[in-house]
Design goal:
This protein is α+β, with helices and mostly antiparallel strands and 282 residues long. The chain is 51% helix and 15% strand. Helix 5 runs antiparallel to helix 7.
């Protein structure tokens, strides 16, 4: 994780599909007070690809400095911005541009742009959709940050305390990763979170059991059944699981009963232990 560019790419593609703007582009921070444009849809010259935009300079730099959206309807004649990037912008023939900063916990993480090749005012609908795309991206990045922190805890558990306590932390991280994955809109990031949770589950397999290549096929649980069992495994009640996953308690109960049936288990904790033996939980 830790790479914002993949999430920016998804946001750029989604925004272009939603608005139909001739050009949508953006990038993540590439250093202190500067971002690099790395994701573009609708470009014709490549002049903006890789362009480094500094805070306070140009339209995107102004958005970074103010921490809010800014736009112009006739870029070459705009008097409210500096014109340090007139060359690359002019090469693409862009005239009406909106720039929206990506702000996560008061830190600028990048900028999203939408642009027209005509001197027209950016419609309220387009502006609202661009801002919403930025907000969705901010949410994804915030969740990704939480996942990074959880993975760091799992990779370097506290050396203090018994091994059992350290394994409880790994199990808590496993449940947290699965819960966070459900909040992510970027399919690539979601897949990476789920893959990380699967690796944690494999790491917790009983070393006395047969190697994975020699094990008979285990039960196949749905993603939601595994999400529920992950939280049950760390001692959560059905109501607590429901709050964590944004489900109704009755829905949690239904998923749990289905998982128990597939595992041929008779109690909640028996299901957890059977899932651990199958390498589904750490």
């Amino acid at each position: 994780m830790g790479d914002d560019s993949a999430a920016v790419r998804t946001a750029v593609l989604s925004l272009q599909r939603a608005t139909g703007l001739p050009m949508v582009f953006g990038g993540a921070l590439s250093g202190r007070d500067r971002m690099r444009i790395s994701e573009l849809v609708g470009g014709t010259t490549g002049s903006l690809d890789g362009l480094v935009v500094r805070r306070n300079y140009g339209l995107g730099g102004k958005a970074m400095a103010l921490g809010r959206p800014v736009w112009v309807s006739d870029y070459p004649r705009a008097s409210t911005i500096s014109h340090d990037y007139d060359g690359p912008v002019g090469a693409e023939g862009l005239l009406s541009i909106v720039a929206v900063p990506i702000v996560v916990r008061r830190q600028i993480r990048g900028v999203l742009y939408g642009a027209l090749r005509e001197p027209l005012s950016i419609a309220d609908r387009v502006l609202a959709m661009t801002v919403q795309a930025a907000r969705d991206l901010e949410q994804d990045l915030a969740v990704q940050d939480e996942a990074d922190q959880a993975l760091a805890r799992a990779a370097a558990p506290s050396e203090a305390g018994p091994a059992a306590a350290r394994w409880e932390e790994v199990r808590a991280v496993h449940a947290e990763l699965r819960g966070l994955a459900d909040q992510i809109t970027d399919p690539g990031v979601r897949a990476r979170l789920l893959e990380a949770s699967t690796r944690l589950a494999a790491a917790g397999a009983d070393p006395s059991s047969a190697p994975e290549t020699e094990r008979p096929p285990g039960p196949s649980l749905s993603p939601r059944e595994l999400d529920v069992l992950s939280y049950v495994a760390i001692g959560c009640t059905n109501a607590q699981v429901a709050r964590q996953l944004g489900l109704l308690p009755a829905t949690v109960k239904s998923y749990l009963k289905s998982a128990m049936r597939k595992l041929n288990s008779h109690t909640r904790m028996e299901a957890v232990n059977d899932a651990r033996r199958a390498g589904l939980l750490p």
